[in-house]
Design brief:
Length: 354
């Protein structure tokens, strides 16, 4: 038994050593790709692109060792969680390496220096992406759950930054101050830096799972239902979704030209199906507590949303569900029921299969 335990620990040590090597290589690739983009250093960009090849070989070796470990030791409990987390981490790091390669290729395609404000954004986001990725990887290697959770929270604060950057690049395009290929290259750089941060969050979640067995929480969504008056269909949709899918996210509703009160027929129908609309007051679309970028989904129940929204934020998805007979609560309910069910299945999957 002592010999078996020694072999198990030796194999775990070899896997941990390769995790450390892979982590260092990938984080350095991201850092170098950002430096290449800022300085337009073609040699550094090329070296980073070529450096992805040995990183991929290291990833293949790590994946092989994990599978051999499972076959040889038939791990359970903590060891099984660790190996499964390493395999997911390996996939994450391989993706991050690909992001660094893309940033480097985008840097090589730039025809000139980026605008000063854009360079500042690249520098700021690059520094944060590298620092937080390294923190996340350190939390995994040191099995530090507190560090993982703190890093995860820090990463979550950068959501609106990318909407601002996207708007800035759109303005550059509208002003024709930059060649279009450069704008695409800059957008690719920012997009990959955003993905690096998202993957760092995944590393944090794998740390928590490996150490505690706590699974990754299911994603939730902030959803806004809109129609013309917010006196019927959108209010019904908001309250039904909140009752039927409480764990899926938050729900609000608004109207382009809000009425003075909710339609009495919808209030009565709501009572029949267990929804309390008595004290609801229609809300004006322009007077919401949140700005558009705070919503993951905007569901248009009346059509014509683009007459009221000039530009949908980059990370917000607009869904058009123009309903027929919107003044008939039964007809509205019968149309909403299957559409919401399909949407929730798409967003969160069938919980019965979990």
């Amino acid at each position: 038994m002592a010999g078996y335990e020694a072999r198990l620990q030796k194999d775990l040590g070899r896997i941990a050593k390769r995790v450390k090597m892979m982590s260092r290589a990938v984080s350095e690739s991201v850092e170098n790709s950002v430096r290449a983009a800022l300085s337009r250093d073609t040699q550094l960009a090329t070296e980073t692109i070529l450096g992805d090849l040995p990183t991929n070989r290291l990833s293949s070796d790590l994946d092989h060792r994990c599978h051999v470990f499972v076959a040889r030791h038939l791990p359970s409990a903590g060891h099984l969680r660790y190996i499964s987390s390493v395999m997911r981490l390996n996939q994450t790091l391989e993706r991050v390496g690909d992001y660094a390669e893309t940033i480097s290729r985008a840097a090589l395609s730039l025809s000139g220096p980026a605008p000063v404000s854009t360079q500042r954004d690249i520098e700021m986001l690059g520094e944060h992406a590298v620092r937080l990725l390294r923190q996340a990887l350190r939390s995994f290697q040191e099995e530090d759950v507190d560090l993982a959770r703190g890093t995860h929270e820090a990463i979550s604060n950068y959501g609106t930054t990318f909407d601002k950057i996207f708007d800035d690049l759109v303005k550059e395009g509208e002003a024709s101050t930059r060649p279009v290929p450069d704008l695409f290259a800059l957008m690719a750089i920012f997009n990959r830096l955003e993905r690096v941060l998202h993957q760092a969050k995944n590393v944090c979640q794998q740390t928590v799972f490996a150490v505690t067995g706590e699974a990754k929480p299911r994603k939730t969504f902030d959803i806004l239902f809109v129609d013309s008056r917010n006196a019927g269909a959108s209010v019904l949709a908001e309250h039904f979704a909140r009752k039927a899918y409480p764990e899926a996210g938050t729900y609000e509703s608004a109207g382009w030209d809000a009425a003075d009160a909710v339609d009495p027929s919808f209030v009565s129908y709501g009572e029949e199906i267990g929804l309390d609309l008595v004290n609801e007051e229609p809300r004006q679309f322009a007077g919401r507590r949140k700005v558009l970028r705070d919503y993951d989904l905007i569901i248009d129940l009346a059509g014509g949303v683009h007459q009221h929204v000039r530009r949908v934020p980059y990370h917000t998805t607009l869904i058009s569900w123009p309903l027929e007979r919107r003044d008939d609560p039964l007809a509205v309910y019968e149309q909403l029921l299957p559409r919401l069910a399909d949407l929730m299945n798409t967003l969160r999957g069938d919980e019965d299969e979990a």
